Amino acid sequence: MKKILSLALASVMVFALAACAKQNTDSAPTDTDAPAESADSAAAATDGVNPEPLPADLPSGNGTAINVFKATTPETIDPTMNSSLDGGQYSAHLFEGLMRYKWDGSGIEHGMAEEYTVSDDGLTWTFKLRDSQWSDGQAVKAEDFVYAWRRLVNPEVASPYASDMGTFIMNGEKIIAGDLPKEELGVKALDDKTLEVTLQNPTSFFLQLAAFANFSPLREDAVEPNGDNWTKTSDTFLSNGAFKMQSYATDDRLIIVPNPGYWDAASIVPSQINFFFLADDVAALAAFRAGEIDYIDTPPEEEVQALTNDGLFGAVPQLGTYYVSYNTKKAPLDNVNVRKALTLAIDTDFIANTIRNGAVNAAEAFIGDGFATTDYDSDFRSGWQTYVAPSDYENNKALARQALAEAGYPEGAGFPKLEYLFNDSTTHKAIGEALQNMWKTVLGIDVELKMTDWATVLQDRRNGNFDIARNGWIADYNDPVTMLNLFTSNSGNNDGKYSSADYDAKIAASSKEADPAKRNQLLHEAEDILIGQDWAMGPVFYYTITWAANPKLKGWGVTPLGYQFFHKAYIEP
Amino acid sequence: MLKYVSIRVISAVVTLFIVITATFFLMFLVPGGPFLSERVNQQTIDLMNRKYGLDKPLYVQYGNYLKNMLKGDLGVSYKRRGYTITEIILEKFPVSARMGGLAILTALIISVPLGILAAYKRNTPVDRVIMIISTFGMSLPSFIISVTLLYILGMWLKVLPTIGLQTPQNYIMPVIALALNPTCYIIRLMRSSMLDIQGQDYLKTARAKGLPEILVLFKHALKNAVIPVITYLGPMTTAVLTGSFVIEKIFSIPGLGKYFIDSISGRDYPMIMGTTIFFAAILIAANLIVDILYSVMDPRIQY
């Protein structure tokens, strides 16, 4: 009970903070003719979930060493090759793109780009670079961006995120497919300090992408001679961000220290950050309790109560949704009413607040709270309908039964047995058992649980070898399209093979739409089709970012995308 | 002797070949793949499969693997970009081996004398206490020991560091956790084989000649009684030296142990092959050394 209270209190505080941030921007003058001016402040409107507001009188210069546990050894710390959240976080400390994430977590601001201009059609962006140095003292040049971005779409390099990110840039898609040489990518160095980017479509959230790890600059003379080996030691690992590598040991730790040549080096507080790579969350918790680590990400769920009691636990909403995929190509799940019945029969409130102990928020839609509208002035969710009301389960149950009867299976009579596929984990299992129980008691439908290892689930899900499957998605950037793209007919992650010409048309139109209000409307209409009309998926809960932190650790920030920033972190004496 | 060793080496090569072939085809039977991920689309997966030759028919891949292996090339890891299998094994194995070596040493130093003591004090309280403790210690799974040590010494008392192997103190908990099971097992092994030989004629003779008991023990009894322990040392050494999945995870030790499991769950095919071959090779070598040791310890055994 105590914990629920404190969580409730924490979320109230978070919302209060978000509200503050919003007020600030609302009162700020917004000049639509000068997007360069408004980008910084506007992004803050919906991103503000900073749990530790930065104190005004930060100790400057050489602070203390900070010990952090984020995850186990990443697959890579090469920003081009990165596709993971932990890798993205290391990148956000070591590299800096044209834009950077604000270190208190409240949106984006100018990074390597001092200023920029956009053409009227929203396609051509010209960035003026700051004077800043790589970790070896050389100046950061526009060519470094050109090199890195071409590498991202180079099919020989095979970056896992090439199609997710590279396709925003002009000709990216064709280059990835091998139909054009990489030199045809829409990025040019006009001179050492000027970068011209041509986009495929007017992308309203391009500045967000410009802060993403995959769009970091790289030094050709560090990468090319060393191939995949360039990330291994500080001799060859050159970075342009606030920090540089001191040492890197897989299965052990990544040690980073301030980069003296970085343009904003005076703002960096810690003398050193040690990112530990632990493989076990019990080990992480023990190290945290022993005082060897100041911050651990996602502490074991069974420890949340104890950590909360000790005032060490924290959580903020994350942009992402846990949901179930229906195989829409398989009877009886090809029937919209069956999918509607299954979705409404899920007691999301019970799953979020009882099974997950209130550590997550019950979902009402696919796009969760915290996503920004296209012009970044408010929350995408506010002022628009939701599809499932977690608080009115009785009504949901009645609607579910009605839908099932309309589908031709009153009370579940004659309904075939289904299988629910999920990967091996105690949480997924508990949720699977709850779903099984809900579908049985509300709808009279028998569902068998199938738990296998992660790689098998991925394969089965992608091959359509399932009836209903656990699924989830975390946003790459703060725009609803990062989620909605999953359900277009040609999406590789459309596991349920949902296909709707109307839906595809709305998404396609949104990518060409330059008017923010119209684009926002299109995205809402798309979500209406996805759930309100076709019930293509069943939302369960919105993810949260959870942590345990040393109460003396100050000055760090977290974004709803899931990155933590320790650029200004210090240990209070 | 030389002939025996060469026959054993040839049979080891054949065994290795069978292990390689079986593992290679079995691992491709498991569904899933190394590049499959929620975050990666099919186009990219195809691209990566092509890059690593996984788009070719299985028999071609097998042929290529054998060819490269004979050249000493075990391939690159699919899950740790930029690292070759040989590089990972060479970096991680010494860590596991150092810790494992300490554990084996600790186990032998403690268990052999205790086993002998228990045998000499058979059916006395000393014997019973040793036996009760060793039975208990043998039945404790290593993760229970590790987590208990971690909680008590690391988290509550904060007397020992919990992460990695930076200082000598770091070794204490993992070495205890690794050594406990073998120690208890060897105590029992040593005790029973000491008891077995007590009635042997050569011991009676030695005692009848009036040799002091200490000489009887070291010159005559121990040499024969230790053979079952040596037999056990072969597989035990292999397992302990190549690292323990559980213990390395709990104490955050950058050893080889977790690659045995992680490579399988991640479908990192070259890593699965690499760890399997490495483990098999060490096991075969350890057994060969054990066999040679037999003939050194017991002249009746001739090859």
Mean pLDDT of chain A: 88
CATH architecture of the domain at 85-257 in chain B: Orthogonal Bundle
Strand-residue proportion of chain A: 15-25%
The value of Rg of chain A in angstroms is: 24 Å
For the record, the CATH class of the domain at 85-257 in chain B is Mainly Alpha
Strand composition percent of chain B: under 5%
- Sum up the overall morphology of chain A in one term: globular
- Large-scale geometry of chain B: flat
The CATH topology of the largest domain in chain A turns out to be: D-Maltodextrin-Binding Protein, domain 2
CATH superfamily of the domain at 85-257 in chain B: MetI-like
User: What proportion of the residues of chain A is helical, as a percent range?
Assistant: 25-40%
CATH fold topology of the domain at 85-257 in chain B? MetI-like fold
Oligomeric state of this protein: heterodimer
CATH class of the largest domain in chain A: Alpha Beta
Largest sheet properties of chain A: 11 strands, mixed
- Write the CATH homologous superfamily of the largest domain in chain A: Periplasmic binding protein-like II
* Chain-averaged pLDDT of chain B: 91
Contiguous uncertain segments of 5+ residues of chain B: none
- CATH architectural designation of the largest domain in chain A: 3-Layer(aba) Sandwich
Number of strands of chain A: 21
Question: What is the total number of structural domains of chain A?
Answer: 2
Architecture blueprint of SSEs:
The complex is a heterodimer of chains A (573) and B (303).
Chain A: H1 2-27, H2 35-47, E1 65-71, H3 85-94, E2 99-101, E3 108-110, E4 113-118, E5 124-129, H4 142-153, H5 162-165, H6 172-176, E6 187-191, E7 194-198, H7 206-209, H8 220-223, E8 243-249, E9 253-258, E10 272-277, H9 281-289, E11 295-297, H10 304-309, E12 313-326, H11 336-344, H12 348-355, E13 361-362, H13 393-406, E14 418-423, H14 426-443, E15 447-452, H15 454-462, E16 468-474, H16 481-484, H17 501-512, H18 516-533, E17 537-549, E18 553-554, E19 557-558, E20 564-565, E21 570-571
Parallel strand pairs in A: 1-10, 1-11, 14-15, 14-16
Antiparallel strand pairs in A: 2-3, 4-5, 5-7, 6-7, 8-9, 9-10, 11-17, 12-16, 12-17, 13-17, 18-21, 19-20
Chain B: H1 2-29, H2 42-51, H3 58-70, H4 85-120, H5 125-139, H6 142-156, H7 168-198, H8 201-208, H9 213-225, H10 227-241, H11 245-250, H12 257-265, H13 269-297
Helix pairs in contact in B: 1-13, 4-5, 4-7, 5-7, 6-7, 7-9, 7-10, 8-9, 10-13, 12-13
